[in-house]
Specification:
The protein is mostly beta strands and 67 residues long. Helices cover 10% and strands 42% of the residues. The chain contains one helix and three strands. Strands 1-2-3 form a three-stranded antiparallel β-sheet, with no helix packed on it. Strand 2 and strand 3 form a beta hairpin. The model has no long low-confidence stretch (mean pLDDT 95).
Amino acid sequence: MKIPETFVAIDLETTGLEFEKDEIIEIGACKVVNGKIEEIFSTFIKPTKKIPKEITELTGITEEMVK
């Protein structure tokens, strides 16, 4: 399979691994054109519950960052 010349890679960070109860806390994306990153996007999303300590240790995302 050939990789397209232009594509967008997306990354999500969440409050855990259970999609039915956990929430997205960060969305990141980058646009790649001919093998080079052309644009980068990142935004935090404030969850309705506290971010577990283990997730902060894993991702580096704190409550202060998502306010």
